[in-house]
Amino acid sequence: MNATRTSKLLMVLGGSFCVALLTAGCSLGTTDSTDSTTTLPTVTTSKAASSQATDNAQPSSTTAAIQTAAERYGTETSTTLPPLLTNDDSITTAGLGPVRIGQLVEEAQSEAGVELIAASTGSEACRYYTPAAGATGASFMVVNGEVVRVDISSGPITTKSGYGIGSTKDAIKTAFGSKIQESADGDYVMYVPVSDGDKNMRVIWELDAEGTVTSLRTGRVPHVTPKIGCAGG
Question: Which of 113, 93, 99 is nearest to 147 (CA)?
Answer without folding.
Answer: 99
